[in-house]
Write a sequence for this structure.
């Protein structure tokens, strides 16, 4: 019974990491990328997201609660799981280890980012281009955000590979190899989008 329960939890953890958390990450990076066209472009895109109907409901039930479960159960996996060298290749075991480390780094980054933006907004601050420019006026914060973005994107892209395997989408070695190249592509594209947006705020 305990094994079946853990199987279900792991499936749910994997699913929520892609839908909706991973999709939200991609969408969030794309919105931020509007900063590359200037402050007005970013503020307009961010303002549109702020005015979505049922925004609070969507944030709580589609973003924060799934993210909270994924983070808490992810920490359990990170501190209890062991590499399986007999089942996976040397490369995949490295990816599994990096998945755990990137998950912890991403959790710290996301918690701080939410504190600086959403919590600040709840106390009356305006989430706009100037807010991000002020946050990133510190060289330390630029490095912190760069590491956080790369870590979050890696965690999503590599987790996407695991999602395909655990949900039976990629079963054969060939399909898993193709999936590796696809997820590397996802990592590179989203990393460029995220870092370009970061530079635009500086």
């Amino acid at each position: 019974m305990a094994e079946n329960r853990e199987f279900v939890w792991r499936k749910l953890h994997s699913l929520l990491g892609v839908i909706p958390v991973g999709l939200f990450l991609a969408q969030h990076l794309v919105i931020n990328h509007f900063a590359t066209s200037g402050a007005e472009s970013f503020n307009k895109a961010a303002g549109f997201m702020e005015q979505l109907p049922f925004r609070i409901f969507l944030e709580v039930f589609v973003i924060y609660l799934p993210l909270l479960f994924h983070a808490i159960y992810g920490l359990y996996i990170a501190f209890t799981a062991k590499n399986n060298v007999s089942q996976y290749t040397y490369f995949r075991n490295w990816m599994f280890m990096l998945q755990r480390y990137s998950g912890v780094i991403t959790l710290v980054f996301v918690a701080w980012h939410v504190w600086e933006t959403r919590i600040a907004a709840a106390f009356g601050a305006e989430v706009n281009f100037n807010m991000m420019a002020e946050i990133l006026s510190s060289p330390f914060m630029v490095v912190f955000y760069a590491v956080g973005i790369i870590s979050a994107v890696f965690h999503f892209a590599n987790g996407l590979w695991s999602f395909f395997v655990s949900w039976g989408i990629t079963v054969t070695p060939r399909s898993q190899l193709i999936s590796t190249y696809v997820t590397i592509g996802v990592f590179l594209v989203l990393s460029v989008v995220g870092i370009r947006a970061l530079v635009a705020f500086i």
